[in-house]
Amino acid sequence: MGHAEHHAEQNAAPEQYDAVVVGAGFAGMYMLHRLRLLGLSARVYEAGDGVGGTWFWNRYPGARCDIPSMEYSYQFSEALQQEWEWSERYATQPEILKYANHVADRFELWPDMQFNTRVEAAEYQAKSGTWRLTLAHDDATDEVEARFVIMATGCLSVPNMPSIEGLDDFAGELYHTGVWPHEGVDLTGKRVGVIGTGSSAIQSIPLIAAQAASVEVFQRTPNYSVPAHNAPLDPAYVADIKSRYAEYRAENWQRGFGADFRDSDRSVFDVTDAEREAEYEDRWARGGLAFLAAFNDLPFDDAANATAQEFIRQKIAGRVDDPELATKLTPSTPVGCKRLCVDTDYYETFNAPHVSLVDLNETPITRVTATSIETTARAHEVDVIVLATGFDAMTGAVSRIDVRGPEGSLNDKWARGPRAYLGLATAGFPNLFLVTGPGSPSVLSNMLPSIEQHVEWIADCIGYMEQHQLGRIEADLKAEDEWVTHVNEVADTSIYPKCNSWYLGANVEGKSRVFMPYLGVPPYLEKCADVVAKGYDGFTLSN
Ligand code: N01
Question: 501 in ligand 1 pocket by Cβ < 6 Å?
Fold first, then answer.
């Protein structure tokens, strides 16, 4: 069933719901499914005009997932995971979007989802104990009320627009990778300037270069990237996984990023130099994020991490013809400290005569004019600017909603960084849940199973409340404070706080520098289960 048919019904939506879900990405869709299984009335509001969340918006050339397809999908339905056929090791954005639409069809989610509707505000009503939400759509606003609000707003959903003087005056074409035009962009024969060198840039630059007359890449910080070695999926491999999908999933889940990650229980210093090189070479040859799991101390020990840095530096030197350019493309930060990138021919692209690098450390951008990106050295004339400048990650979407609880606003509470208990709820905001919120493994795990775990935890919690006729749940401040302290303590044992990454909000001007995700899937799962076993320890439930 296509969603277009349902637009007509949307105006007739009732105004009171048991639950409102914000966002129709993978989190919002599954949340809706689970709420309906509880027999609750639920409505999803989505700003875009389709499902898929980040995969709906990120349509830049080369956009694909860097978690293997067989793991980057829902597992809640055995029938679904058996019937769906992924075509490549790493699925493309169009294929993932097709999958999201298939799920919406298969579970008949469309009637309870409303598109082109942005949730602008959520205000707790003390008298009724409900949330009143302000919705903006078609140049109008209206309000709905719900007993529960679930923020399924995504970790990487709000584009980070750089504040470069004159950007608005640019007369050519201006695109952000995170909100790429749905009809695609023809770059044939154009002079393109790409600002940023994160995952989105590293995936798109080779494809942009394949079309454009010239590509200038404006780099502030180089990133490490390992080859993807993407390929069509071998039917025998798929059949094997499908014959034991549940077991495969269970094993993956203990590893955070999945079985392909092949976490090692060896330290860099447990092996000889030759063994270490062989391990890195093996992982490099297989490709993908598993490189980071070659040794168990890479995320924690500077000296261990330095060996991985050196290995990748040599690889970059081998992939880029001009040694001076190779040096500029080589990071000096710990590997993995900024999100590791996965590429197809990124570094090699710079060997083409029409591709060049502008090192912003040497010559910073001063402004954009109608026709150029100006640095302290000169004006770079371009027809197209591609902003690959990332996202206001993890908190951006929630902070753009004016959330007001009984004691005040969420933005005030989070002014010095987000605070949430288990990344699921935040003290002072009853009956409001976050899916993969700050303080949960989220972006330091395979997002799909993390989403499923949160959705199931929230659905079970609401089910428990219904069963026990409890109307209100709120995280305790003490439990939240202790959890946030723990999240930071764990992060401080790692390399993560050592560079300016979006994990820390460092990419967004004025954002508080706080490490947002929780490092460690197995202990997190244990903690979540323990909280439930102890009768929602750290939460207050009442009538
Ligand atoms: O964003 P980023 P992204 N002037 O924040 C630069 C996931 N993802 O969209 O490092 C000049 O990583 C900024 O420079 P610096 C994945 O988790 C996954 O690429 O801040 N430059 C940086 O180089 C990923 O990590 C996939 O100094 C400016 C770049 O822009 C996350 O999304 C694919 C600037 C932003 O890099 C985000 O990736 C794509 C300025 N004013 C994304 N402002 C896959 O599954 C920012 N920059 C493969």
Answer: no
